[in-house]
Design a protein that fits this description.
The complex is a heterodimer of chains A (about 80) and B (about 500).
Chain A: H1 2-10, E1 13-20, H2 30-34, E2 40-46, E3 52-56, H3 66-70, E4 77-84
Antiparallel strand pairs in A: 1-4, 2-3
Chain B: E1 2-7, H1 35-49, E2 56-60, E3 75-78, H2 84-94, E4 99-105, H3 106-112, H4 114-123, E5 127-133, E6 136-137, E7 143-144, H5 163-166, H6 172-177, E8 184-189, H7 193-211, E9 216-222, H8 226-229, H9 233-247, E10 251-255, H10 272-279, E11 303-310, H11 315-328, E12 332-338, E13 347-355, E14 368-373, H12 376-382, E15 386-395, E16 409-413, H13 415-422, H14 428-444, H15 447-464, H16 469-493
Helix pairs in contact in B: 1-7, 2-4, 3-4, 11-14, 11-15, 13-14, 13-16, 14-15, 14-16, 15-16
Classes of the chains: A alpha+beta (about 80), B alpha/beta (about 500).
Bound molecules: thiamine diphosphate and iron/sulfur cluster (SF4) (3 copies).
C-alpha cells in the first residue's frame, strides 16, 4: 500500500487506450480473444465493408499490445498512451 | 494531457494502399484473421525500425501473399511460383548491399520451389526467407500441402492426410538447420500474443543477420488460414497451438551467425560487352552498316544451315566458324547449339542462320537450305528436312551415299580421310568448311568476291581458335585441302 502511494506520487498518471478504426477492421475477433483484460468486444454494427468490428469498452486497457500484434490489419488497432498531470 | 501512440500502423507500410480496389485503401486483401497479415505487420515494423527500407527488396511469391508489393514501402518484385530464392540470389549477388527478403508459402517453398529454396540455403546466400507454413495451399482453395498434418482434411485429402499414402509433413526448419551454410533457423507461431512476440524477435534477428551479411537465415511461421480450415479465431489458434506445434516444434534450430564472418562474394561483372563475350563467343549482330567490308551477293536470301554429327566431331565449332564467317561479312547471324545426352555419343547438332535481315528466331524447324552432316544418324535424321534445291555436304568417309531427290545439290567430301592425313580427325570440320566455300563460291559469288572470300574463312578460323597457333595453321590447311578435294572431284566428273 505504501509502495503504491509512493509510485503514484512520483509518476504522472498514465492511461492507455485502444482505438479501433472501424472501417479497417475485418471482425476476425483475434483481438477480443487476445486481450488479457477483456476490454475489447465485438460491436453490433457493421462497417463499410460489411464486417462487424471490434470496439473498446472505454476503460481498463493496460497498453500491453497483444491486440495490436495479433490483429492482421495494419492500422485497425492503435494503442495510445495518455499521460495526465 | 499528452497522447502518444505506443503501437500503431507500422511505418514500413505505405500510408495508403493505392493499388487496392475499392474505397478502403488501408487494409489488406487477406481474409479476416489470416496469418499473412500478422507477419507482414511484423516485417513492416522491423524494416522501418532497422532503417533499411531504402535497400530492402521483398519478393512477392505466388500464393495469397502475391500482392505483398502493394503494401511494403520498400522495393518489391514478383516471381513465378517457387522461384523467389533463385531471384533473390540474382538480386543479392548483383547488388550485395540490398537486403533481400524471400517471402514464401508452404506450397511455394515446400512443394513447387523446394529445390530453388534448398539450393539457395545450401549456397548460404545472404538473404532472409520468411516461410509461412499454414498447412494448406491457401490461394487455390485449400489443397493439401507438403506441410499438411497427418489426418488433416483438405480439399485433396478429404479423408485426412494419410501417412501411408502421402507420407509425413515436410519439416523444413529441421532440414535447413542440418545444412552447414545457413546461419539462423527458427520456427515461430503466429497464434498467441506470446508466440507472436517471439516471432517478432525472430524477424528482426534474421534481418540483422542479412544486414551484417552473415548469410542465409530462415524463419518458419506456423500461421492460420482460417478460411480454408473453416475455423474461427479461437479455434484457429487452438489448431496452431495444439495440433501444429506438436508436429512442428517451436524454437531456434540453429544460430551460428556470431561465429561467421560476413560473406564476400566475387565481384560481379557489369561490363555488358564482357558478359556477352563470355556467354556468346559469336555475337548476334544487328544493324551494322551495309558497306562494312565487301558486301557480297551471297546469301541474298536468308540461309538456314543445319549441321549434324556426333559429339566431339566438331560440329558445333564448324557451325561457329560459319557463323563467324557470316559475321565478318556483315550479316546478321545466329548460332544455336543443341546439346543434350548427345554430347556423349549420339547426334549433336546446331543451327546457323545467316541473313541480311534481323533474325527473329535462331531455331531451324525442318526447313534448312544447307545441310552438313558428319555421321550416318544425322544424315538419316536431317536429310528429310532439307528444302527443295537445297545443298547437302557430307563426309563420305563415314556416310553411305544418300538416296536423295535430284533437285538437291550434293557434295561428298572424303573429310575424315583427308583430316587423318593432316594429323587428326579433329580437322574434318575444317575440311568440310573448305567444301562449303566451294559450294557457296560456285553458286553465289561474283569473281570480284572470291579472293576476299577465302580470307574471310581464314579469319573465321582464326577467330574461333584464337591463340592456338598450330591448331589454326592445321585447320587452315584442312580448309584448303577440303576445297581442293571438292574442286578436283568436280573436275573428275566433268
Ligand atoms: C507454376 C504455377 N503452378 C501452380 C500455380 C497455382 N497456384 C497458385 S497459388 C498455389 C499454392 C500456394 O500455396 P502456398 O504457397 O501455401 O501459399 P498460400 O496461398 O497458402 O499463402 C498454387 C499451386 C501457379 N500459380 N503457378
Ligand atoms: S493493449 Fe492489451 S489491454 Fe489494451 S486492449 Fe489491447 S490487448 Fe487489451
Ligand atoms: S484483430 Fe483486428 S481485424 Fe480482427 S477484430 Fe480485432 S481489430 Fe478487427
Ligand atoms: S485463404 Fe487462407 S492464407 Fe489465403 S488470405 Fe485467406 S486465410 Fe489467408
Amino acid at each position: 500500500m505504501l509502495v503504491q502511494t509512493i509510485m503514484k506520487n512520483k509518476t504522472k498518471q498514465v492511461k492507455y487506450q485502444a482505438v479501433i478504426a472501424a472501417d479497417e477492421c475485418k471482425g476476425c475477433e483475434r483481438c477480443v480473444n487476445a486481450c488479457p483484460k477483456s476490454v475489447l468486444q465485438m460491436g453490433r454494427e457493421f462497417n463499410f465493408m460489411g464486417f462487424p468490428y471490434a470496439v473498446y469498452v472505454g476503460e481498463g486497457c493496460i497498453g500491453c499490445g497483444a491486440c495490436f500484434y495479433t490483429c492482421p490489419e495494419p492500422g485497425a488497432i492503435t494503442i495510445v498512451k495518455v499521460t495526465g498531470d | 494531457m499528452t497522447e502518444t501512440i505506443v503501437h500503431g500502423r507500422p511505418k514500413g507500410f505505405f500510408a495508403t494502399f493505392e493499388r487496392r480496389p475499392g474505397p478502403i485503401k488501408k487494409n489488406m486483401h487477406y481474409c479476416p484473421g489470416c496469418g499473412h497479415g500478422i507477419l507482414q505487420k511484423l516485417i513492416a515494423e522491423a524494416i522501418s525500425d532497422l532503417q533499411i527500407q531504402d535497400k530492402t527488396i521483398i519478393i512477392s511469391p505466388v500464393g495469397c501473399s502475391v500482392f505483398s508489393y502493394y503494401y511494403f514501402d520498400c522495393f518489391g518484385i514478383s516471381v513465378p511460383h517457387g522461384r523467389a530464392p533463385a531471384t533473390a540470389t540474382g538480386l543479392v549477388r548483383s547488388n550485395p548491399d540490398s537486403i533481400v527478403i524471400s517471402y514464401q508459402g508452404d506450397g511455394d517453398l515446400g512443394a513447387i520451389g523446394f529445390n530453388n529454396f534448398i539450393q539457395a540455403a545450401n549456397r548460404g546466400e545472404n538473404m532472409c526467407v520468411f516461410f509461412v507454413n499454414n498447412a494448406v495451399y491457401g490461394m487455390t482453395g485449400g489443397q493439401m500441402a507438403p506441410t499438411t498434418l497427418p489426418g488433416q482434411k483438405t480439399l485433396t485429402s478429404p479423408y485426412g492426410r494419410s501417412t501411408d499414402n502421402e507420407g509425413y509433413p515436410l519439416k523444413v526448419s529441421e532440414m535447413v538447420a542440418a545444412l552447414d551454410s545457413p546461419v539462423y533457423v527458427e520456427r515461430a507461431a503466429l497464434s498467441t500474443a506470446k508466440n507472436i512476440l517471439a516471432a517478432r524477435k525472430a524477424v528482426r534477428k534474421a534481418l540483422r543477420n542479412t544486414i551484417d551479411r552473415k548469410g542465409f537465415s530462415m524463419v518458419e511461421f506456423l500461421a492460420g488460414c482460417p478460411t480454408n480450415l473453416k475455423l474461427d479465431a479461437k479455434a484457429m489458434n487452438e489448431f496452431i497451438n495444439n495440433r501444429m506445434i506438436p508436429c512442428f516444434p517451436l524454437g531456434c534450430f540453429k544460430d551460428i551467425a556470431d561465429e561467421r564472418d560476413p560473406i564476400r562474394r566475387p565481384a560481379g561483372i557489369y561490363d555488358r560487352k564482357k558478359v556477352r563475350e563470355l556467354l556468346y563467343p559469336v555475337r548476334v549482330e544487328k544493324g551494322v552498316p551495309p558497306d562494312f567490308r565487301n558486301n557480297s551477293e551471297i546469301f541474298q536470301k536468308t540461309r538456314k544451315i543445319k549441321l549434324g554429327g556426333f559429339g566431339g566431331q566438331g560440329v558445333l565449332s564448324l557451325g561457329k566458324m560459319i557463323a563467324t564467317m557470316g559475321r565478318l561479312r556483315n550479316f546478321n547471324v545466329s548460332w544455336l547449339p543443341s546439346y543434350g545426352p548427345e554430347m556423349r555419343g549420339g547426334t549433336a547438332n546446331c543451327s546457323v542462320i545467316i541473313s541480311r535481315k534481323t533474325i527473329g528466331s535462331p531455331v531451324i524447324d525442318k526447313n534448312c537450305n544447307l545441310l552438313i552432316v558428319l555421321n550416318q544418324p544425322s544424315m538419316d535424321k536431317f536429310l528429310p528436312e532439307l528444302k527443295q534445291n537445297g545443298v547437302l555436304i557430307y563426309d563420305s568417309t563415314t556416310i553411305a551415299k544418300p538416296d536423295c531427290s535430284p533437285d538437291k545439290i550434293v557434295y561428298a567430301v572424303d573429310a575424315s580421310n583427308i583430316a587423318k592425313k593432316i594429323g587428326s580427325l579433329m580437322y574434318a570440320n575444317s575440311v568440310i568448311l573448305g567444301a562449303l566455300a566451294v559450294a557457296l563460291d560456285s553458286y553465289f559469288l561474283t569473281p570480284a568476291d572470291q579472293a576476299d572470300f577465302d580470307r574471310t574463312f581464314e579469319e573465321a578460323i582464326m577467330d574461333c581458335f584464337s591463340n592456338k597457333e598450330t591448331i589454326i595453321k592445321l585447320n587452315i590447311e584442312a580448309f584448303y585441302a577440303g576445297k581442293k578435294a571438292v574442286i578436283e572431284s568436280r573436275a573428275g566428273k566433268k
